[in-house]
Structure formats: C-alpha cells, structure tokens
Write a structure and sequence with these properties.
Length: about 475
C-alpha cells in the first residue's frame, strides 16, 4: 500500500435537473424531423406548435413562443451552410463525424448567437440546457465548449475568417456568406446574369421569410373582403392578390377556410392569369391543367374559366394529390373535372383543349424562401431526373391543345436546364408551334417591370417580390 497521501476528492456538484424550455425543444424536434425523416419544415412545424400549445397551455406557450420557435427552425435551416462553415472551424473533428442530433443542437446555438438578438450568454446557456435535456450531460459539455468558441466573434468576423475572398473565388464566397450550395449559386447566377449586386440581392431575398399572399378566387371572394383582415394590403401585381404584411394566420381567414380564397404567391397567380389572358382566335371553352396538384393554379384557372363559361379539366398523376385538387376546386362556380391521369399518356383526344397549363415537377429552386431545407436536399443530378418528364409533359401539352390554342409551360425553378432549354428542345421537335410573347400579358396587369428580353418571362424574388416562377407561352400553329 502506498503511503502517499490521497488527493482529497472535489465534492461532487449537486445534480441539478436541466430546465426544459418548450420553445427550444420544439425547434430541436423540428430539425430532427427534417434531418431524419426528410420532413418539410413548413408541414412539420404547425403540428409541433399545436401540440406544444396543447401540452403547455396558452399561458406557457403563447404567440411569441410560437414566433421564436418558427424563427429558430427556419433561420437555422436556411443558414445551415454558413453555420456549418463556422462550426467546422470550432470543432476539432470533421463535421461529418459529429452525431447529427449534436450538430442540430450546435446549429441552433450558432443561430441564436449569430443570427438573432438573443444576448450571447443567454444563447449559450439556453442551448446547453437544451443539450442536457436531449443529449445528456456529457455531450452538453461539448456543446458548451464549441459555442463558447463561436461566441468569440460576430457573424461578420466569422465570415471574414471562413469564406474565401470574393476576388479569389466568387461563387464559393457567395455560397458561404449567403448560405446556398455552390452549384445553386452558380445556376441562379447563370439564369439571372448581371454582376455581384444582382446575385447578392437574390441570395439575400432567398434568406428572407416571404409575406403570406392570398388569392381572392374570382366569382367567389373579392379582394375587399380580404383587405378587411388585420395588416392586409393589396398585392403588387395580381388584381386578385392580398398580402398579409405581418405574416398573419391564413387559417383564421373565413374566405380561406371556405375555399373562396387561398394562399398563393403572386408569381403563381401571374402565371395562371397570363395563360388565361393570352389572345385566342376561335372558341375558348375547354381548358386543361395537366399537372394540377395540389391545385393552387387550377383553382384560379377554374374560377377564371367559369367567368367565361369555359370548363377546366384538372389532371394530376398522384391520386392523393388529385384529392387535394378536388378540395381546392370544390365550390367553383362553373363546371370542372378532376382526374387522376398521367399527363404524358393523355386520357383525352389530341387537340381537345383551347388552353393548356403544364406547371411541371421541378427542383423548386425558385421557391427557396418558402422551403428552408430544400436547397440542401436538392442535387444537380435531380435535373437529369426531371429533364425527360418536363419535355414529355410539354410535348403532350402541345398535342393536347387545338391548332390556334395556347400552352403555358411553367416551373418554380429558374434553372436554365428546366426552363429555356426544355422549351427550345421541344419546339425544335414540334414544328407546328411558335412562342408567344408573355411579357405584355404581365405588363398589362399592373405594369410588372423587368421582364427581360422575352418572349418568355422569369420572375425573381428580389425584383418582383414573388417566387422565381418561369413562364413560356406557346401557340400551336398546325
Ligand atoms: C409543380 S407541381 C404543380 C403545382 C400546381 N400547378 C399548383 O399550382 O398547385 C407538379 C405536379 O405535377 C404532378 N405530376 C408529376 N408527374 C406528372 C405526370 N406525368 N402527369 C401529371 N402530373 C404529374 C406532381 O405530382 C405535382 O403534383
């Protein structure tokens, strides 16, 4: 036995249970659902908020808590690229070796430290408490150490350290600073053209939460009814649009609950309106929406068709999405039909329709404002998957319209491979069709500016306040 005196043991700290903060636990659960189950934040969040309200009661979980939880989830997901670059500089191993739940907690902490006005000490201690609850004390100590390193600088300071200088590598600089995958920066820039200012404005707009925009479906609701809602202001371009300037709760609007109005970005409204307003010789009685689910544009088209005594056929390949279309169209004042059908193998005779819309499946790179996780899920290879389907749907649309009729090809992506390249390829193989200038149809609505060289139209969040919708109109000539 050794006679060296034993070092007296430090008295153990009395164990304190971690404080449970329902807002941050909810935000963590939402991030896990997005990572683990490929859930969509905008779908998973409302049900988590409802559950938290039920469990905690309105006193312990009020509107401000819901707003903070939403901001934490959306902000963390959007800024993930920037935050990962900063975390990589603060963690002593590659980020891929950090357990995903630990990384989610760290990202939430970084967002509070660098992306909100929460004071640093509160951001660190709240995140460490969260880590104690959801990860355990050991990993909470790791979270504490990493966040203390992050807290040594502000966002600008970190960006100077972790982003390459713009002059050395412009795309990587923008990717890190504005938190977009590099290939997405590159594609958006190709489509937008212009210099640094333009692309930076677009990338910044992608990181802002869009206003909620409503559509008053013609013949069913008027904008004056929607304008009576708190903080409601008229839309910028569409005569049917009303914006809820302070976010608002669309579910609380009677006209939305009754299906007389809907939630719809103005870019989508403009696409439907431009197709409906394209000049046509001869009959204007049968319209087709060949990719209708979940039914936003179909509902507007059906209401416009009803005003003219025309009928809309809304086709959707997926049965459950056809159900959503049926719900969106229920109560339409004129005749309509919803069918489950593959738009590339038409269940109708060629030349049956006067107007046809194909709002084709795409990467959705034009709606990044709305889907904060989408930019990290998409891969350049997705373009190859969509390419044949997009071409097939446009080709069938052209076969489905009568001679003299008009087809609208729309995407909520501005990627050149999904827009102009598709239209150019299909028109090459379909000699009986010619482009129609879509610009005057939009400019005629309320002077939508900056519509480019035509004949097609690309809308942009930073220029038009809409999603980056693309529209090409094509007339069948023989
Ligand atoms: C971009 S979304 C359409 C959005 C819709 N226009 C709206 O405004 O609500 C594309 C839709 O096309 C559907 N789709 C995919 N392949 C299809 C096909 N071969 N035929 C018909 N619909 C298809 C998808 O299921 C999806 O619902």
């Amino acid at each position: 036995m050794s006679d060296t005196p034993r070092r007296p043991r430090r008295p153990a700290k009395p164990h304190r249970r971690p404080r449970k903060d329902p807002v941050r636990i909810l935000a963590f659960e939402a991030l896990r659902a997005v990572d683990e189950r490929d859930a969509y934040a905008n779908l998973v969040l409302p049900s988590l908020l409802r559950k938290a309200r039920e469990k905690e009661g309105p006193e312990r979980f009020d509107g401000r808590d819901a707003a903070l939880a939403t901001e934490l989830v959306y902000g963390t997901l959007r800024r993930r690229g920037t935050y990962d670059a900063i975390l990589a500089a603060c963690v002593d191993r590659p980020l891929k070796d950090v357990d995903p739940p630990v990384l989610d907690v760290l990202s939430l902490g970084v967002h509070q430290l660098l992306g909100t006005r929460i004071p640093s000490h509160a951001a660190v201690s709240a995140t460490v408490e969260l880590a104690r609850v959801v990860l355990g004390d050991g990993r909470a100590r790791f979270v504490n150490a990493v966040l203390r390193r992050v807290a040594r600088d502000d966002l600008d300071g970190w960006l100077e350290k972790v982003a390459p200088p713009y002059d050395e590598d412009p795309e990587e600089h923008l990717a890190v600073v504005h938190s977009h995958p590099r290939w997405v920066v590159s594609a958006l820039w190709d489509s937008l053209g212009g210099g640094r200012t333009d692309i930076e404005e677009l990338l910044r707009a992608d990181n802002e939460r869009p206003e909620v925009t409503l559509v008053a479906r013609p013949g069913r609701a008027g904008t004056e009814e929607l304008l009576r809602e708190e903080s409601a202001v008229p839309g910028r371009w569409s005569p049917y649009a009303v914006r809820l300037a302070e976010g608002g709760e669309p579910g609380a609007v009677a006209a939305v609950r009754e299906g007389r109005a809907g939630v719809q970005d103005e870019g989508s409204q403009l696409v439907a309106l431009a197709l409906a307003n394209a000049p046509l010789d001869g009959p204007d009685e049968k319209w087709l929406d060949g990719c209708a689910g979940p039914g936003g544009k179909a509902a507007l088209l059906a209401a416009l068709a009803a005003e003219r005594g025309a009928v809309l056929v809304a086709a959707e390949k997926q049965h459950h999405r056809a159900g959503l279309v049926a719900r969106a169209l229920a109560g339409n004042p004129g005749p309509y039909q919803v069918i489950t059908a593959d738009g590339t193998r038409p269940a109708w005779r060629p030349g049956s329709f006067d107007r046809v819309l194909v709002d084709v499946p795409c990467t959705g790179l034009g709606a990044l404002r709305r889907r904060p996780e989408a930019r990290w899920r998409r891969r350049p290879e997705d373009l190859e998957v969509f390419a044949p389907l997009q071409r097939g749907l446009l080709r069938t649309a052209l076969e489905s319209v009568r001679v003299g009729g008009v087809v609208g090809y729309a995407t909520c992506s501005p990627h050149p491979a999904e827009t102009r390249a598709v239209v150019a390829d299909v028109l090459k193989q379909f000699p009986g069709a010619e482009p129609v200038d879509a610009r005057p149809l939009l400019a005629g609505l309320a002077g939508v500016p900056d519509l480019g060289d035509g004949p097609d139209v690309q809308l942009w969040p930073h220029r038009h306040g809409t999603d980056a919708m693309y529209l090409a109109l094509v007339r069948r000539t023989r």
